[in-house]
Design brief:
It is a single chain. By secondary structure, this protein is α/β, with parallel strands linked by helices. It has a single domain, classed as Alpha/Beta hydrolase fold, catalytic domain (Rossmann fold, 3-Layer(aba) Sandwich), CATH 3.40.50.1820. Helix content is 30%, strand content 18%. Helix 1 packs parallel to helix 4 and helix 6 crosses helix 8. The N terminus is likely disordered. Keywords: Hydrolase, Signal. One of its GO terms (molecular function) is hydrolase activity. This is Esterase. InterPro entries: AB_hydrolase_fold, Dienelactn_hydro, GDXG_lipolytic_enzyme.
């Protein structure tokens, strides 16, 4: 999530060409209330249900975790210790399915509400045990103005001619985040009985950088093995699909400034491998729409995702 001013300057100067797969995962947003685009520092909110994962502190981190408010939503930066926050359904409605929710933010910030808790609450309302993953992030300047300048500099670098990296190549730079995702899956399986979860029905949904992490977890997560995955406005670069690749749901807007118009290699990869895939291309929505209420049909992505889960039997009570 970037300040609107930074995004506007970048768009005007043509700085949205991609420098590698990781830089491409920046979470740009176009919410309904653009007047709330200013980043306002806030105290770290209470997180009484957050469970510290056992992946340790981010190596060589010096800047402490900070939070800010933007677009009426909450964001975290400089996360150095990963946590997992459960959002459990009413036991009477629990169906045994679980979803790890990975917010986006370019691995520099995390959209903890729009792409985190709001998604988890919507899943819990459908009987799904949801878990928001606050994964470790690349360090950024503490000062908001310096942070904004650092993002502008990143876009300047992105303007240089380069060849986009394949997702498999980008995975090498995501070791801490993949470790956090693996730890999240391990924890949910360990406490599956307590949380009324079927260990074989744990999926993952991610947004932008979170979608990148979801794909990385699928390709290189070793023991994570998501039962199904959802990629919302993530990269559509082609990948080498594992023989046991899970069913995949993908959604993106045609006017997405980062990932649209670059082909649909990911979808074709899944189809060629004869693995289940559902793809939604919305006419409008931009990037980062998440759970923000908008007048575009991209707002319907969650209903489509829930219907897709239902089609795969994930909203039926587990045996």
């Amino acid at each position: 999530m970037l300040a609107k001013g930074t995004i506007g300057k970048a768009l005007e100067r043509g700085r949205l060409s991609i420098l590698g797969f990781a830089i491409a995962a920046l979470a740009v947003t176009s919410p309904a209330h653009a007047q709330d685009d200013k980043m306002i520092p806030i105290a770290i909110p209470a997180q009484p249900n957050a469970i510290v994962l056992g992946t340790g502190p981010l190596p060589d981190a010096t800047a402490p975790e900070v939070w800010h408010q933007q677009y009426g939503s909450l964001f975290a930066r400089n996360v150095t210790v990963a946590t997992l926050t459960p959002y459990l359904p009413d036991p009477a409605k629990a169906n045994g399915t679980a979803v790890i929710v990975a917010p986006g933010g370019g691995f520099r910030t995390l959209s903890m509400e729009n792409e985190g808790s709001d998604v988890a609450k919507a899943l819990a309302a459908r009987g799904v045990a949801a878990f928001v993953l606050k994964y470790r992030l690349n360090q950024t300047p503490q000062d908001m103005a310096e942070f904004d300048r650092s993002m502008t500099a990143m876009f300047a670098n992105a303007a240089r001619p380069t060849t986009r990296l394949k997702p498999e190549a980008a995975i090498a730079n995501l070791a801490p985040q993949i470790a956090d995702a693996r730890a999240a899956f391990a924890l949910v399986r360990k406490r599956a009985g307590e949380w009324r979860v079927d260990p074989s029905r744990i999926g993952m949904v991610g947004f932008s950088a979170g979608a990148m992490l979801t794909m990385a977890t699928t390709l290189a997560g070793q023991d994570a093995k998501p039962a199904f995955i959802g990629l919302v406005y993530g990269s559509l670069e082609a990948v080498t699909v594992p023989a046991d690749a899970p069913p995949m749901f993908a959604a993106i807007a045609a006017d997405d400034p980062l990932f649209a118009g670059k082909g649909m290699g990911l979808i074709e990869s899944w189809m060629t491998a004869k693995r289940p895939v559902e793809f939604h291309l919305y006419e409008q929505g931009g990037h980062g729409f998440g759970m923000y209420p908008k007048t575009t049909t991209s707002t319907n992505w969650f209903a489509a995702f829930a219907s897709w889960m239902q089609m795969h039997g994930m909203l039926k009570p587990a045996a």
